[in-house]
Amino acid sequence: MSDLATRTAPVPAEPAEFPGVSISLSPPLARWSLRARDPAALAKAIGHMVPGKIGESAGGMLCLGPDEWLLRLPEGATVPMGEGLPLSVVDISERAVTLVLEGPRAIEVLSSGCPRDLSKFAVGYGSRTIYETVEIVLVRKGEERWSVDVWRSFAPWLWTGLTTAASHLR
Length: 170
Prior knowledge:
By secondary structure, the chain is α+β, with helices and mostly antiparallel strands. It is built from 3 helices and 11 strands; from the N terminus they run E-E-E-H-E-E-E-E-E-H-E-E-E-H. Strand 5 and strand 6 form a beta hairpin. It is globular.
C-alpha cells in the first residue's frame, strides 16, 4: 500500500480557449473556512487583515457573511488555527478547486448560468452564488478576470457547463 495518494485535477490542466474567453484551472491553493463573532479577534489570531463588509476581499480573504470568511493563499501557506479562542479555522484546501475565466467575454459565460447581475461586481468583490445548480464562490479579480471556487466533486460538471456556454457565444 502506498502512504501517499496522488491527487489528480478533476478538470483538464490545459486551458480551454474560445473567442473572447479562456477557462483554466488555477494552481492549487491553500484554503481555510473561518468563522468568528469578533473579526478583530480573528485578525489577531491568524495575522491577516479581515474584510469587514460582505463581498469585500483583501489579501486573499473574502467576507462571505457576517461571521464567515474564506481565506485563499498559495499552496503550502499556513495560518495559526486559533486554538483556545472563540473562533473556527478549518483547513479546506482539498475540498475545492479554482477555475479562472479571463477575457472580454468571461462575464457572458458566467452570466449564462449565474442568476446574479455580474456587471454590478466591482473588482475585488466576491460572493457565494450558483452556476446553474452548483454552488460556487465567485470573485471578480479584474475587469476581465474572474475566479470560481467549486467543490472538487462538482468541478467536472462546472467545467463542462462553462466550456459549453463559451463554445456557444455568438
